[in-house]
Amino acid sequence: MSAACEVEVGIGALNIDDVVAVARHDARIVLSEASRAEVAKSRAIIDALANDPVPRYGISTGFGALATQHIPLEKRQQLQRSLVASHAAGSGEPVEREVVRALMLLRISTLATGRAGIRPETLDAYVAMLNAGITPVVREYGSLGCSGDLAPLAHCALALMGEDEVVDAAGHLTNAENALRAAGIEPVQLQEKEGLALINGTDGMLGMLCLAIADLRMLLTSADVAAGLSVEGLLGSDAVFADDLQQLRPHPGQALSAANLRKVLAGSGIRESHREPGACTRVQDAYSLRCSPQVIGAARDTLEHATTVATRELAAAVDNPVVTLDGRVESNGNFHGAPVAYVLDFLAIVIADVASMSERRTDRFLDVARNHGLPPFLADDPGTDSGLMIAQYTAAGIVSELKRLASPASVDSIPSSAMQEDHVSMGWAGARKLRRAVDGLARVLAIETLTATRGIQLRAPLTPGPVAAAVIAALTDEAGQTAGMPGRDRYLSPEIERAVALVKSGAVRDAAARAAGSLD
């Protein structure tokens, strides 16, 4: 989806590509007419309850442990402002722009269902703020992942009211009121229920999950490419990736990964060199080569489960209380982040394992006892040169960090709000560590890709397959210098970072896919 497109928000659910388009590529959003009608209808119900002598949570009461406190009519606006201001209690470094935009979009999506009871003019202002490229400053710490991502969403709501700091479309840090007025948006004065409606959702953790899913779809294909290059460069066999063998254990992700590996290895002169009887004395390759479809494939299946959860959550109206379809205003527990928190942790686990196997393949290239005829550490003059010795250290350090990040956040609950909120999901924390894990996986795969392509080039005069040749070309800069190319020791960090950038952007995956015809 291009940056120029529009995403319609309303009664129908968003999809993951919509979230990425708005959050990462600045697509504009528009509200559907059906949504506008439903929002107006539910707001009329809230307005009718404003003078009800029966206490109504979020309308005429305090919040959390203070829900028993009845608030008189003349203090209702102050109630909403106080709620938002007090809950905008974040601390730490600002989170990434794309995360804040995803969070804003998903809050708008819930508001647009009509289940939150917000005024149409407040929703219009929120949409206008997002479309104007105004990004509230949201701090890293503050959400426990229950009652929603309260502090992050409160910082966005406070900006909508013309308070707090924002970053404008030009990237300048400024006052929210100034940014809103410059964009022709009048700061909002909240009415009954609106403060709660603006902050009570799992939007931050869900937004980060959607972005991670989009990244991992690309990175797991890149992992297949890297694994295939390693099998090629280490004189491994592609026979174990045969389709009939995969069908004996019918996991769909495994079958897709094995198919990718067959395509990566197709047409390789290196592979053909040891296909004849007697050309290779090994009976089986090491697990890190032979079992890569099983590991990467299981990661793919886990990603599909996470996608199912994200898709369901994108169709949800997460708020408390909600205006039901038949007009009741009811409290509920749908704000609890457990469904999202669990899959955030699950993805961190599989990332650590995919990266761990990748690092093991990198290490095999560097060990003269296991790399089948390549020089130690792929060095030009071993002893004088260290080759890629320390690149493997870097990968190993990242993998160790990924193992720590795989420790689940969702099992750690700390009671809050005077024991009213006595079990929380910690989904925001799970999402934050998952983002770091996705970055780490890209780096480990980049180092494997760089190492494998050097190993393949050192097999000359044997010729690589079309996919390996395409990846080597993708790693070559305008000056003809290839990241990871054989030769005397040189400053290695820039080459690693260039490979990382190419993996993260999808350039390595795309080059491989073009040469292979297609990759899943």
Automatic annotation (TrEMBL):
Keywords (alphabetical) are: Histidine metabolism, Lyase
Where is the protein localized?
Answer: Cytoplasm
Its pathway is: Amino-acid degradation; L-histidine degradation into L-glutamate; N-formimidoyl-L-glutamate from L-histidine: step 1/3
Q: Which CDD domains match?
A: PAL-HAL
* Cellular component terms per the entry's GO annotation: cytoplasm
GO terms (molecular function) for this protein are: histidine ammonia-lyase activity
Q: What sort of enzyme, by top EC class, is this?
A: lyase
* The organism's place on the tree of life at top rank: Bacteria
Q: Which PROSITE patterns match?
A: PAL_HISTIDASE
- SUPFAM superfamilies in the cross-refs: L-aspartase-like
Task: Spell out the family assignment given in the record's similarity comment.
Answer: Belongs to the PAL/histidase family.
Protein name according to UniProt: Histidine ammonia-lyase
Say which species the protein is native to. Answer: Dermacoccus nishinomiyaensis
